[in-house]
Design a protein that fits this description.
five-stranded antiparallel beta sheet; 9 helices; 10% strand
């Protein structure tokens, strides 16, 4: 007959189990843990590689098997109570899963996917941060577009992975992390949709375009002025443009500034034209520009009221005239 040895680890484990059951009457504790050390010694003598479970979780299983209520704990505050409640719920769910072989397989599968979730969680946090600081970069893109954004994403990734691995755990933050996981899971699909819809857009970060993307753009670049030429190839002066709905068609520069000279040593403000109604109009082209003066009271540059509006240099003095199509030749679609 083989005699099983009760090791110090088993003794310590049994003490932990009884401590977790200390809220019960002494006779119930004795009934639940009677022969615990001997049973464990026998079980672990047959499987030397087997590891002892968590004593608190083991005690919870004994309670569950005996039909006893979960141990109530004194709550020291809102976050402490929430943390204890979440831990107890997680433990009870873990016990229920381990009792069902099918659920054990499912749980193992999702456990293997945890590293992927850590990365996704960091990406969602990055997207949320980009939305909160608005649109310094135009909102959501799949990946960062500058060094600072890459640094933010890298820091969030490290924090998410280290927390998931159990390397960074801070007391009292458990409930906050749980809430963060829930929020990240809820926001995952909307963030992917937003990144997909904005993935091909071009954003500007250094001037008024970052606040107002209205106007005329050509291949992602803002159009600052428009020059028109008639059928005879000669340049047109002061023509108004409207869209298909009759709305004034303006470029991306109303209220903005630009270069007065070819080398851009002097800057100026674009200036509107005036209609017979007395209203100003920004859809009259070619647009003109006035010089800048510094207003000491406001501390800002302003259009010089005494300066005369200057015409901008056209790209061509004259363009080829429009001719009718030769007889018998069909226009190319």
């Amino acid at each position: 007959m083989t005699t099983s040895t009760v090791t110090p680890e088993i003794v310590t484990f049994a003490k932990g189990v009884r401590a977790a059951l200390a809220d019960l009457p002494a006779d119930e504790v004795d009934d639940l843990t009677e022969g615990l050390e001997a049973d464990l010694a026998e079980a672990y003598a047959e499987d030397l590689q087997r590891e002892l479970p968590d004593p608190t979780a083991y005690a919870a299983e004994l309670r569950l098997a005996a039909g006893l209520p979960v141990r109530s704990k004194a709550k020291n505050g809102l976050f402490s109570g929430l943390s204890d409640g979440l831990r107890d719920t997680k433990r009870d769910i873990g016990i229920a899963i381990r009792r069902n072989p099918a659920l054990v397989g499912i749980a193992d599968f999702f456990t293997a996917l945890q590293p992927a979730w850590w990365l996704l969680r960091a990406w969602v946090a990055y997207q949320a941060a980009m939305h909160l600081i608005g649109a310094v970069n135009g909102g959501s893109l799949w990946l960062p577009t500058d060094l600072l954004q890459w640094l933010v994403l890298a820091l969030l990734t490290v924090a998410s992975v280290q927390w998931g691995r159990g390397r960074w755990r801070f007391r009292g933050l458990g409930p906050i992390i749980v809430v963060g996981n829930v929020v990240a899971a809820v926001l995952l699909i909307p963030m992917i949709s937003a990144a997909e819809s904005h993935g091909g857009e071009v954003y500007y970060t250094d001037s008024y375009e970052s606040q107002d993307l209205t106007g005329v753009y050509l291949n992602g670049q803002p159009v600052t002025n428009i020059f028109g030429y008639g059928a005879d190839g000669k340049r047109l002066e002061s023509f108004q443009l409207f869209d298909q709905d009759g709305k004034p068609l303006t470029t991306s520069v109303p209220g903005g500034n630009g270069c007065l000279d070819a080398d851009c040593n002097e800057t100026g403000f674009w200036t509107p034209s005036y209609l017979e109604t007395g209203q100003t109009a920004w859809n009259v082209f070619p647009m003109r520009m006035v010089g800048i003066v510094f207003n000491e009271q406001t501390g800002m540059d302003e259009p010089d009221p005494a300066a005369k509006a200057q015409d901008r240099k056209p790209p061509f003095v004259k363009v080829p005239a429009v001719m009718p199509a030769p007889k018998g030749e069909k226009p190319t679609p």
